[in-house]
Amino acid sequence: MNLRNPIKYILFFLALLYGCKHEQKQGYLNFNKVENKYIEITDLCDSICYIPLDNHIPLNNIQYIRKSLQFYFIWANSKGLLKFSKSGEFLTQIGAIGRGPKEYNKYSVFDINREAKEIYILSEKKILVYNFMGEFIKELNIKLDYFVQNIDFLAPYYLVLSTFNSYGDAPFNWIIVDLNGKEVSEKVNGIHFKTKGFFGLVPSFITYKYDNCVYYFEQLNDTIFQIVAPGNTNNPYIFDKADKRFHPDIYKNGISNLSNHIIPKNISESSKYLIIQASELGDNNLFMYDKKRNKFFRVKNEVPGVINNFDNGPCFIPSIITEYNNAIQIINAFEFKAHIASKAFKISTPQYSDKKKALEQLANSLDENDNPVLMLVKLKE
Question: What is the dotted CATH code of the domain comprising 31-379?
Answer without folding.
Answer: 2.120.10.30
